[in-house]
Q: What sequence folds into this?
């Protein structure tokens, strides 16, 4: 058994640090476009997305508190659903979900770097710089896992500074005064906020990562559910204050007009050219902190799957486990190649404007909620068997989590590219399922062996 070293406050800080990153900075304009510049509708969309995530967190924490095996979502699918489900989750996370988010965050780092240094902000320059950051951080994590960890901790603190500055100064000193707020309420009750939910879901993404540390949290059956409720509420408060503060400072029309560049304009308005550049540097560090965390996770995922024999070439991917700096080398190189492929895919979709006011990561995040529904239903099944006690833990929380996931999926289905991406996802899922069926016996043996020879519940 690993030492349980994280208390409640540390757990809340870790979850908050994992979730807060780049999304809130470069998705605010996307949110305003979807709600036609209506601040009230934007706030409603934030609340709707947060509620969905809170119930999802509470539901998955029931699974997290019932196993000490590391691996997070994949482990829960493997243990509480089936070996086939575990393989499907692993392939989806490795080939679709995580790499698509990595390339978008890397691209955003390129966008803000172009703004910072006055580089011509063509898509090609943005992608080239983003790929450079991806390469540098990837090498850094390969050479030293500790160095990557230090950077992650530092960026967690730095990323809060711009949020708080804009929130406080915008609300109290913004040119859009609270009296003019009423003029922005027209149509606030409309369904326009639904279209903004995918962008907000991206901003909240990362909350499931926290369940992978359940086995390291003191009194996790009590502390993890509390942390999984408090953290989204804290993040929701920060996001709403930043969103409203930025709208008061610059005005909704200006934010929509400027797009991602509105962040620098806000800083310039508040602190002048020099102050704006300094705060934009903090934003870039925040974005790179998110990218670094995603790289840290992506390097280990193929390795974890290779130990279970869940992926072709598992013998190769399981080699060089210690790598150079304590990172599985073969698995890391494989993840980097997948990310580069997605970088090219992202470039094509942006160049051809295939996803207006969106990107490939939003569809991945939305599609990912369809897989979460499988876990939510598993909690209900455990409650029916009497293994989970209480009507709230076993039925109400997962029911609301399913409803929340359906809302996010419905919102994302409005994308013109959604149907094609969904078909692509189904093809990957079908391939994963067929692979697991064909190699089921070997996968079960490998999984049991990886767990010190103990049989794993529900694998068969």
A:
């Amino acid at each position: 058994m690993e030492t349980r070293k994280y208390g409640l406050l540390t757990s809340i800080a870790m979850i908050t640090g994992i979730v807060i990153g780049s999304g809130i900075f470069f998705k605010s304009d996307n949110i305003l476009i979807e709600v036609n510049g209506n601040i009230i509708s934007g706030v409603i969309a934030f609340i709707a997305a947060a509620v969905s995530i809170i119930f999802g967190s509470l539901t998955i924490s029931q699974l997290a508190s019932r196993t000490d095996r590391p691996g997070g979502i994949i482990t829960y699918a493997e243990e509480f659903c089936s070996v086939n489900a575990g393989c499907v989750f692993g392939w989806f996370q490795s080939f679709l979900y995580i790499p698509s988010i990595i390339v978008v965050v890397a691209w955003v780092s390129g966008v803000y770097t172009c703004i910072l240094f006055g580089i011509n902000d063509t898509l090609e320059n943005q992608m080239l710089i983003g790929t450079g950051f991806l390469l540098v951080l990837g090498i850094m994590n390969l050479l030293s896992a500790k160095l990557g960890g230090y950077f992650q901790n530092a960026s967690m603190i730095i990323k809060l500074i711009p949020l708080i500055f804009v929130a406080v100064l915008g609300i109290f000193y913004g040119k859009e005064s609270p009296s003019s707020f009423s003029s922005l309420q027209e149509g606030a009750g409309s369904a326009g906020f639904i279209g903004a939910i995918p962008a907000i879901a991206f901003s909240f993404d990362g909350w499931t990562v926290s369940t992978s540390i359940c086995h390291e949290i003191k009194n996790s059956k009590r502390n993890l559910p509390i942390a999984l409720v408090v953290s989204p509420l804290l993040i929701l408060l920060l996001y709403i204050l930043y969103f409203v503060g930025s709208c008061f400072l610059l005005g909704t029309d200006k934010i929509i007009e400027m797009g991602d560049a509105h962040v620098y304009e806000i800083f310039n308005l508040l602190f002048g050219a020099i102050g704006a550049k300094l705060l934009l540097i903090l934003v870039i560090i925040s974005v790179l902190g998110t990218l670094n965390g995603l790289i840290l996770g992506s390097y280990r995922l193929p390795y974890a799957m290779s130990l279970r024999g869940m992926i072709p070439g598992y013998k190769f991917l399981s080699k060089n486990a210690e790598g150079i700096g304590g990172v599985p080398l073969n698995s890391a190189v494989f993840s980097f190649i997948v990310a580069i492929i997605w970088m090219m895919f992202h470039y094509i979709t942006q160049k051809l404007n295939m996803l207006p006011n969106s990107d490939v990561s939003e569809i991945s995040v939305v599609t990912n909620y369809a897989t979460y529904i499988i876990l939510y239903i598993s909690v209900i099944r455990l409650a029916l068997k009497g293994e989970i006690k209480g009507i709230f833990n076993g039925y109400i929380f997962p029911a609301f989590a399913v409803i929340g996931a359906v809302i996010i999926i419905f919102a994302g289905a409005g994308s013109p590219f959604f149907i094609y991406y969904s078909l692509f996802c189904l093809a990957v899922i079908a391939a994963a399922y067929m692979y697991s069926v064909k190699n089921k016996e070997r996968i079960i043996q490998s999984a049991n062996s990886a767990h010190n020879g103990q049989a794993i519940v529900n694998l068969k």
